[in-house]
Design brief:
The complex is a heterodimer. Chain A is α/β, with parallel strands linked by helices. Chain A is 26% helix and 19% strand. Chain A has helices spanning 9-17, 86-90, 98-106, 126-142, and strands at residues 38-43, 47-49, 62-66, 74-76, 112-113, 116-120, 147-151. In chain A, strands 1, 3, 5, 6 and 7 form a five-stranded mixed beta sheet that branches. By secondary structure, chain B is mainly alpha-helical. Chain B has helices spanning 2-10, 22-28, 50-66, 99-117, 129-142, 154-174, 182-192, 194-207, 212-220, and strands at residues 14-19, 32-35, 71-74. The longest helix of chain B has 21 residues, at 154-174. Classes of the chains: A alpha/beta, B mainly alpha. At the A-B interface, α1, α2, α3, α4 and β7 of A face α1, β1, α2, α3 and α6 of B.
């Protein structure tokens, strides 16, 4: 479980001592009605498309997943072995809930689910990702996406 | 991911993080965060439980609508699959001398799960499972990594091989009756399977290597914290 007191001592120490980035100029986009949200998912699970190149363990880049890419062609290539993978093996929506988000759009809870979602390699130091995140922000804006749901593993 | 949320927000994209480690959410303070009390690796909670998954996603996204300042709230519902299922039965894998034989015995279970779910998480190595089993058998006998793919190092090939083999065993374990917790599946894998026991032994052998890169594989990339000895 993700409660720290339920992890092994080594794992707990690793999470407790992990250096966290400090963000000085925190921004906050004003509240927006949910039915005006056009939403993309961004996972840190190191997802790759079947038959694509493997993701280097220190990759700072992201991989896109169009809706044309079926769930059966999405694999987990994360470098860490210290998190559960049984849930992903059984049901991809535990990690990358494209079907659930699509259902929310069909029910008109949100305005739209993106046609393209994304994944990073979560083991990479966040600072190395920053320029790629800014590129992703441009890509999201160009696709008229105004909301991102971030999903660490 | 919390840092990514800050940078996206600076670019004008509203964000919400569904986080598993509350300490990190408290330290990095993303604009909006929902802490979920689930196991690492499953931010949406239980598999095959779309109601719970939808509840998580709904509660997270509503923060975009309802919050006008930095916020961190808790998701209260536990993952029902954290509880062991007494009705679950692990595949009976008998006793084997080679991982290839064990993999062959598990094949009907694995294939049934693939058909039921219309997908498999096996595939990151892009090598057939029998070949991966033979690779680990040979690595165990020769005590050194084996070449298969020319485009990646033999060390990385070994890591990808065991990632695929673990996924194969997990899917075979899911093919039976019941809804096992991850702990049940991993206990079976690490304690009862030949592959699990050989990987635990290989971990120690690699850690004893004079080659620091090999030792690093043993130290970090074979056996998770919980099953190390």
């Amino acid at each position: 479980m993700a409660r720290l007191d339920e992890l092994t001592a080594n794992q707990r120490e690793g999470l407790e001592t992990l250096e966290c980035p400090s963000i000085d100029d925190a921004a906050f986009v004003p509240a927006r009605p949910l039915n005006q949200c056009r939403v993309a998912l961004i996972s840190s699970a190191g997802l790759m498309q079947r038959k694509a190149e493997n993701i280097p363990g220190d990759s700072a880049d992201y991989r896109p997943f169009d809706n044309a890419c079926p769930d059966r062609d999405i694999l987990m290539n994360h470098v860490s072995i210290n998190f559960d993978r049984t849930a992903f093996a059984e049901d991809i929506n535990t990690v990358f809930p494209r079907a659930i988000l699509k259902e929310m759009a069909e029910d008109k809870v949100i305005e739209k689910a993106a046609v393209r979602h994304y994944a990073f390699m979560g083991a990479t130091t966040p600072e190395k990702m920053q320029s790629n995140v800014l590129r992703l922000a441009d890509e999201l804006a160009a696709a008229n996406i105004n909301t991102a749901c971030l999903l660490p593993v | 991911m919390s840092a990514i949320a800050h940078w996206l927000e600076q670019a004008g994209i509203s964000t919400v993080v569904i986080g598993l480690v509350k300490l990190h959410l408290e330290k990095i303070r993303p604009p909006r965060a929902l802490w979920v009390p689930f196991e690492l690796g499953r931010p949406l909670g239980a598999p095959a439980n779309p109601q719970l998954q939808r509840a998580v996603l709904d509660k997270a996204l509503r923060l975009v609508e309802n919050s006008d300042k930095q916020c961190l709230i808790d998701f209260e519902t536990e993952d029902p699959r954290r509880i062991a299922d007494k009705d679950w039965q692990a595949p009976d894998i008998g006793t084997h001398q080679a991982i290839l034989d064990e993999v062959t015995e598990l094949k009907p279970f694995y294939q049934r799960q693939c058909v039921d779910k219309s997908r498999t998480a096996v595939g990151v190595s892009a090598i057939a499972i029998d070949e991966l089993a033979a690779l680990v058998d040979k690595t165990y006998l020769d005590n050194e990594f084996q070449p298969i793919r020319s485009d990646i190092s033999d060390r990385l090939m070994f890591r990808l091989a065991i990632d695929d083999l673990k996924a194969y065993y997990i899917e075979a374990a899911l093919a039976g009756r019941g809804n096992p917790s991850s702990r049940q599946i991993y206990d079976w894998f690490w304690k009862d399977s030949l592959l699990g026991s050989r990987l635990r032994e290989l971990r120690h052998r690699f850690m004893d290597s004079d080659n620091t890169k090999v030792a690093d594989i043993g130290l970090k990339f074979i056996v998770p914290h919980l099953w190390r000895d």
